Amino acid sequence: MNCELSATALHGYFDGELDAVRAAEFESHMQACAQCQASLNTLKSLRDGLQKSDLYQGASARLRTRIAEELGSENRAAAPRWKWFLVPAFSLAVLLIAIWVAVTTQHRAYSARLHAELIDAHVRSLQPGHLTDVQSTDQHTVKPWFDGKLDFIPPVGDFSPQGFPLLGGRLDVIEGRDVAALVYGRRKHLINLFVWPATREPAVAGEDSQHGYNWLSWRTGDMQFCLVSDVSSADLKELKDLIRP
What pTM was computed for the model? Predict the structure, then answer.
């Protein structure tokens, strides 16, 4: 789930710009918000790294003398101005770090928003009559069913011998676009595998849990995959390895 406070109040809190009331409200919110905690820790790590790094290197006496001679300076004490040559390099380093933080924060927000929507889709599918549009354990029946309904054909496999029987498939909507959803069983549990082309958005990879559901995402080529279920993360990893040997 995307946290708006991460974008609106986090930096003000980190820089000490919030008043006492708003600061207390943000601290209370952060106790239950993993995203804000992670973002704040990232900012603290960057600040500590900059403070500990030795980005300034003083010029040697020989170099100061040489510079003073070349400039025709009568006062060689002015040579320490060499340190100002390092200002552009330091500014560039700060700028690059700021860009990295912004991109990382944006990617995390996108990932959180995407997986919250995928979990919602998984929960909807558990309602009666919403699980499958085509119900079959035969991959040669499920895969052709998507032909003409999507502008891509998802890879479909049946892994019954390994304990993940194919149950069927359906069309679903994620971020306003049609995606393929393949349904697998695991003992008495259900697993949704969402598949869609991901040529425009940043690649999403990783695993986490929200609201009692585990998810596992990865990209192969230009296809994005995400498994969502209440089974263990170990079960999801085992199914992932079967899908992409």
Answer: 0.58
